[in-house]
Amino acid sequence: MDYEELHSQFHGVNPSARVELVVHRSIQMIVAIKMMEKKHLTLKKLSHPPINRLFEILNGKKFAYLVQEYVQGGTLKEQILKGRLPEEKARTTCGQLVSALKCCDQNIIHRDLKPDNIC
């Protein structure tokens, strides 16, 4: 495999996915690998600046492994828990969110849109 596990760099888990950080050897970049049950996965590659890039999908028997861009800086939820967002940051974040959603066509529904999933 073209990935090197980062020692104890488990990043998170939610009801539908487990995320680990690894080094992608061929591009020399830290990426996030999200492990999801295939039944929860309907995926379309989208290309838009506020949407994390999807590098590849690895298929197992029960799980799909999504190799995605790792975005540093924490989630929107983590930022909110630190205190009120400055108005300019809130405005920028909302604008990026609306722009990303507009990029999706009528057939795509993000069934888990919440501050935990927004960077």
From TrEMBL:
Keywords: ATP-binding, Kinase, Nucleotide-binding, Serine/threonine-protein kinase, Transferase. GO terms for cellular component: cytoplasm. Pfam families: Pkinase (PF00069). Its EC number is 2.7.11.1. GO terms for molecular function: ATP binding; protein serine/threonine kinase activity. It comes from the Eukaryota. GO terms for biological process: intracellular signal transduction. Residues 1-119 form the Protein kinase domain. PROSITE patterns: PROTEIN_KINASE_DOM. Signal peptide: none annotated. PANTHER family: MAP/MICROTUBULE AFFINITY-REGULATING KINASE (PTHR24346), MATERNAL EMBRYONIC LEUCINE ZIPPER KINASE (PTHR24346:SF30). This is non-specific serine/threonine protein kinase. It comes from Myodes glareolus (Bank vole).
